[in-house]
Amino acid sequence: MTLHRAPKSLLAGSVLLLGCLIPATIVWIWHGGHAPFIDIPNRYAPPSLTHPLGTDPFGRDLASYVLTGAFNTTAIAVLSVALATVIGTILGLVGANGGKRGWAVMSAADLGLAFPPILIAAMLVTAQGASATGEILAIALFGIPAQIRITKQAAQSILVLDYISAARMAGFGSVAVTIRHVLPNIAPILIVHASTSLALAILSEAGLSYLGLGAPPPQPDLGRALASYQIHIFDHPFLVAAPGVTVMVLVLGFNLLGDGLRDLLERPFARNEESLS
């Protein structure tokens, strides 16, 4: 596939994400994942060549703080979605095969959808305290029930095809059929869902941190930055705009990336499905 034939949404999402995450990674490595140095005499400095976005109430370079927070927020979102995808896919495949185990899995997924996400996060934080690990587990628990349902529906559309029956008649068990035939054919759907789930995970991470349920200070975080700087929305609006716009760029980038991947993968997947049927 040539670059000019790629979906425009895929290109736009890639540009937004790379434009944000490449400098974020560089700044994160430069500062070792920590917040910039405190410089009280230089606080509330206006934008300049030394401080492109100015400084915050502690005299820290705002651009460095926000970019480091963007890296941390994205890392937590990626780990959460990866965990939800792996666990949800496995359980969804079990649910697609039916039986008592399948019924138990789908019942648990329905129960998970009934609980408000913020309640799960609050329970985890109460149990082990505010931490990045608790935040990852909470966001992953948000996504597992939906991942189970999507995987089950996609797998069942493959399991009813004739070549699956032929594979079973040839002596292949459920695990072999799932690994060799089902999983490769539903992979495009899982990839698209994971990419769009990252946008929701970014919002969830920012929201949990804003409420004080995320990783504690001094680790930079976009949600906590918004919560800390919101009192300056009228006297120093740039303090609120910088992390807010960064969250918006990340969410928009992952949404566009997911839309582009869907457009890119749905046609080959549809052709493959027609040939199999």
TrEMBL record:
Signal peptide boundaries: none
Record field: transmembrane: 9-30, 75-96, 103-124, 130-148, 189-213, 234-257
Span of domain ABC transmembrane type-1: 70-258
Highest taxon listed in the record's lineage: Bacteria
Subcellular location: Cell membrane
Chief site of localization: membrane
Keyword terms, alphabetized: Cell membrane, Membrane, Transmembrane, Transmembrane helix, Transport
Pfam families: BPD_transp_1 (PF00528)
Alphabetized SUPFAM superfamilies for the sequence: MetI-like
Record's bilayer topology term: Multi-pass membrane protein
Entry's family note: Belongs to the binding-protein-dependent transport system permease family.
Protein name as annotated: Peptide ABC transporter permease
Species, as recorded: Gluconobacter frateurii NRIC 0228
